[in-house]
Amino acid sequence: MEEASLLWTPRFQANFRRYNGVSDYVIKKSAELVKRARANPSQWHFELEKLKDDSLRGISAYRFKITSGDRLVVVASGSKIILADIGNHEVMAEYSRMNRSSREEDLRRACRVDEPFMTQVALALADKKQVNPSESPPGLNGTLDALQIEGETRWLYEEELSENWVNFLDDEQFAISETLFGKLSIPAQEISVEFIMGGPGTGKTVILLNLAKNLESSGRSVSFMASDNVIKYLKSGGNSIPGANLGFGPGVVALVDDPASSKELADHIRKAKSAGCRAIVVGFDPLQWHERKMESNFKKIKANHEYNFYPLRVCYRQSSGVGRNTVELANRIYRSSSRYLDSIKQTIERKEMQPYIDLSLGMSFVDDSGRFIVYMEDVEENYTREINRFRERIDRWKHTSPIVFVYEDSLSSSLIKSLRDAAFELNRTEIPLSKYHLIRGVEYQELFLFVSMDFWKNINQGRSGVGSEEWERIACLHTILSRPKDSLVLFVCN
User: Can you name the CATH fold of 148-161+317-493?
Assistant: First the structure.
């Protein structure tokens, strides 16, 4: 049988040129199609989803996932793999709606892909170092093996490279926003208490922002309460934030983003009721509360108030190549470390924590790209290479800081100075680990974390009888490591 050949149509070429930054990912996915066809020439397309629209009769057209948001329309014709169209979820419907004669003419004019594209495909096929991001990541074991999960950086929508990404809602988030809007746009005698709960990156803040805009447009009084840094980040998307930190008042719908503790949550509900608010809607992740007796405190809040609960179980805003590894690291912390020395109290603590661990760390991821790397040797040399790689990213955010550096507080000032010198003129955020709350709720494309070997050992081996301050220092990694969207690089310094 003739070896598979890769072709593209004029329509595909035109739409491919319109994309900003997605080309590397499309090339790798095209290489995957070629690899499938070479391995099984007659049946390579059987596992793809066929487009079944009646207008496509006589054409074997399939959709192939590029990322969670982008799709490739590919046509199988004998030994030919024809790249027919590319775009977001709507591309399949758009291709089906094409005039039949126009589509047939477009396919008739399909030609072999040009030499630069085919060269890149050949390089992707020959790349034996690539780790399949769909495979399960290796565990974090006691030997402190350096992790090398090198996936593609995150190419999702064009909006993700601009400020518009701040406003994006996926289907799960949109459904919750619509349900709450329908409920809260109607006057009521009793205050409504609504909890939107989920792990990092599940879209709690963006639901509140969407609600704020829709409620204000419908004439409702709104107060959007969030930290100054989250407000700044949201405004980077060109947003005006309705009722930014206006507080509580009669008839107001109070939208509270990420209260810092269970005590703060209880205080907000009390003030909202006293002020005669129409409703209070709170988006939060209880696993990011690190105070002692958090579990019993939150249990009391739920017992004292009638509330509605909206769980978020899908992480859209962080790639799985990053997220699955950070979830495993957070799980290790909660399994291996405890605020108690007594084994019975440890068992009780973990049982009480389990529902929050299941919700916050049990989420699924929709984007299989991303990269997670731990360097334990030659830190400065590897850091230089990583910072140079980051400089070469053509898709760095311009609307807000694209990268954040987090330093363990005990690291030497001379080391930090040398790291800063190598990052000259880069738009970045820098914080000590103890100030992690400054980046709660804020997203970055990448995060570089610098910790000592002792700190890394404590995370992996676990500690018992940990005091409140030390517990927060360890557990806050759940917050820190969830901030980057597509790349996390961890440097363990001696």
Answer: Rossmann fold (3.40.50)
Phi, psi of 220 (to 5 degrees): -85, 150
- What CATH class is the domain 5-126? alpha beta
What are the angstrom distances between the C-alpha of 77 and each of 6, 15, 60? 11, 21, 7
Domain ranges of the chain: 5-126, 148-161+317-493, 169-315
**Sign of the CA dihedral running 140, 202, 24, 135:** positive
Structure tokens at 389: 């790689």
Beta-bridge mates of residue 373: 148, 489
Mean pLDDT estimate for the chain: 84
**Buried (b) or exposed (e) across 312-322, using 16+ Cβ within 10 A?**
bebbbbbbbbb
- Model pLDDT for residues 139-191, shown as the tens digit of each residue: 333 333 334 444 444 444 344 444 455 566 777 888 899 999 999 988 888 99
- What's the length of the chain? 494
Positions of E strands within 231-294: 253-257, 279-284
Checking if the pLDDT of 216 tops 70, the result is yes
pLDDT of residue 387: 95
Give backbone dihedrals phi and psi of 83, rounded to 5 degrees, phi first.
-75, 110
Q: What are phi and psi of 346, to 5 degrees?
A: -65, -40
Which option is the CATH number for 169-315: 3.50.50.60, 3.20.20.140, 3.65.10.10, 3.40.50.300? 3.40.50.300
pLDDT of 148 reads 41
The answer to whether the 148-161+317-493 and 169-315 domains have the same CATH topology is yes
Q: What are phi and psi of 50, to 5 degrees?
A: -80, 140
Residue with tokens 């991821």: 365
Characterize the bridge pairing of strands 403-407 and 428-432: parallel
Which pLDDT value is given to residue 477? 94
* Token pair in block for residue 112: 């072999």
Mean local confidence (pLDDT), 331-354 = 90
Cα separations (Å) of 12 from 23, 35, 45, 321, 458?
A: 12, 20, 19, 28, 52
**Residue 106 contacts residue 11 (beta carbons within 8 Å):** yes
**Helix 320-336 × helix 468-475 angle, to 10°:** 160
